[in-house]
């Protein structure tokens, strides 16, 4: 493992931007991250208004929602490694410009097709912005202790953006038309472009050899196929369906070709040797597993609050707000936890705390229990953010500084893939536990039972059409079955989280600071070593 250089190895080389204004750099990067995080969720509340205005078909509506995350995930590696080659600030500023233009096109789209194109362009801009922010942050904060605090603030901003998106969208829809949810991006971009040009440091990695255009396109096409298949699975498509199997097999084949190509090239697009570092590969695995265990669960929890407890969308958002506040607190406290406990205990404890939260929520039933939900969501938010913060920080610090863009892109891609797979996996578990009990409800025809087995919302619609004792029995059975399915899903999620806690035991025991000869960190002396006379590094 890297990181054997001692703290006394001499004066540390300061990277571009690592001066007094590096905290201003962090503010600019957090502003751009907030924008991307907002755009990932702000459209959710606008879907009904978009549907009413543009009248998209079912497939078109699916692409309106999915085009942004799909394109963004597919292009992260391409633009992350391009930033390493041509300059990370340059790619970031181009992403700002494209994001602003695409937002204007989306806001004034007159057809579903135009909105899909605009959402895809927003995905391209997001793929330029996301890895660039992390890689510039890696360069601007060479001291790992400061970098840990910066990443904690960065991750807290991401949590705020994801939570504020639906609330902001709802406010704008109450006062303006649906295009306003996109127009809000433009003023922020108009400010970010000149400020970023003036304040952000330019940095790039080694430029030996040509940039592997063929490899970049192969990776993009492969990721597009895999993410598309995962999204189809999350939407309920069968694994054997050609719309799932074909993109999955094609994407996996292209990614295999990409890996083989990178191993042969003298100057690869992505340095796969990073995965030989236990801290790097383990961190990537922890990110995937954390998202795999929890993203689908969050969607199911929102349905529970609205359809089982009968809360309004606003009340649901307020109930989930403690989760976001706890995540922000964990992000801000993460640097101190990482210094005190080290990556291994921090990430493993985060997984365990999240598993405790998930098991606590298995007590949920058909009746509302606000104290239980509050405790569960607070533990869930704090544990999840602790896990993700520790994994991201370890991954980014373990990667060589000149490969920061590629490393950041790998982390973001892992996040997207884990989220998609989580929706597919936990959604399948939920459906398997929910549907069987509805096949034998007294007085309910078989066709109605089959339709009710698709989702709780559809079961309520079928029950309303049936009416009478049969409708009431179906509604009650669907509600009880959903709660049972939720409990099963929670148990599966807890098992995945405990598996993540075991995986995290491969991370370094202590935090590593100081840049080593390969651009990675050197281990912080333990307290007894410092007392023995080894000089310590000031933060």
From TrEMBL:
Return one Gene Ontology term, BP aspect: response to antibiotic
- Residue ranges annotated as transmembrane are 23-49, 61-79, 91-110, 116-137, 149-169, 175-199, 211-233, 239-259, 280-305, 317-335, 347-366, 372-392, 413-434, 484-505
Write down the membrane topology: Multi-pass membrane protein
Q: Say which domain of life the source belongs to.
A: Bacteria
Gene Ontology cellular component terms for the protein in this record: plasma membrane
**InterPro entries, alphabetized:** MFS (IPR011701), MFS_dom (IPR020846), MFS_trans_sf (IPR036259)
Q: PANTHER family under this entry?
A: MAJOR FACILITATOR SUPERFAMILY MULTIDRUG TRANSPORTER MFSC, METHYL VIOLOGEN RESISTANCE PROTEIN SMVA
What name does this protein carry? MFS transporter
Q: Which organism is it from?
A: Streptomyces dangxiongensis
